[in-house]
Amino acid sequence: xxxxxKPGDRDHxxxxxxxxxxxxxxxxxxxxxxxxxxxxxxxxxxxHSGTHHHGESESGIYVLSGRMRFRWGEHLxxxxxxEPGDFIFVPPFEVHLEENLSAATEASFVLARNTSEAIVxxxxxxxxxxxxGDATTR
Length: 138
Description:
Elements: E1 20-26, H1 28-31, E2 37-43, E3 52-53, E4 59-65, E5 68-72, E6 78-82, E7 87-90, E8 96-100, E9 107-113, E10 121-122
Antiparallel strand pairs: 1-2, 2-9, 3-10, 4-7, 4-9, 5-6, 5-8
């Protein structure tokens, strides 16, 4: 059966990380989906998400508004910027975080995963784990 999920019907109880909010639109709880999770995310102005991964899920992100910086890798050593119209692919278990590059406006994006639940596994930020210096590059 086709289902329409209106903005007011989204599930706000999905897993979260600091600095980012996620709302589920298509998920097992709302629609009975068995192999797909979709939703929207928002990064507050100037904020970054906590360091995390999505377990076994492959994730696709489509940037709707704002400029975002993605950091990934064992030490978050890889860096790339994305803007509206860009797609981002995040493989399973890839440790990463997202940063909103604007101090004035929210960044928003569409999220899709090939699992019916929003797996979000927070991990310690390797830059704060006693590593020597900041391993990231700009």
